[in-house]
Specification:
By secondary structure, this protein is α+β, with helices and mostly antiparallel strands. The chain contains 4 helices and 8 strands. Helix content is 29%, strand content 30%. The strands form 2 sheets. Strands 3, 4, 5, 6, 7 and 8 form a 6-stranded antiparallel beta sheet that branches. A two-stranded antiparallel ribbon has the order 1-2. The radius of gyration is 22 Å and the shape is elongated.
Length: 175
Amino acid sequence: MIFAETVAVRRDGKAGTHREDRMQHLHEAEDMTTQLLPALDGLKAQAKRLRKSLEAEGNFISHSEALELVARQYGYRDWNTIHAAAGNRPAEPLSLGAKVSGSYLGQAFTAEVIGLTRLNDGARYRVTLDLDEAVDVVTFDSFSAWRKRVNGTIGRNGVSASRTSDGRPHLEIRM
């Protein structure tokens, strides 16, 4: 039996086997789930904190060097590139560190956003909340199950698609 490999031209212009091309597409698909990039003010504040922290240790850098380091931490080539990426995108409904309120399984809460990932369709987010006060997620009187940290997937409106048996969203965040 003779096996033949199909040669294809990849997006980067290089020739490769069909299998290599498929693997490249898989890696691109994995990259579509991205961590959210803070707004420009948040990036600048990070650079300022970094500069002060390094200065306290006796390492002096300029503000522009701190901006460049922050850009590299997020995987960007330089400050101008991250500035363009952060400035040319639609406003995110939530941000890391934001204080939010809403309900989880029917229980009211206030919380801090400690994890936030935009999913590949751009319309949904995976969010992790650190609740100020633990909530009881069981409706039975005979026992309780308290939650202080909550994970969920929400739309841009702050409501999860997952529903309880009575049709109520698992997670609702007031935007």
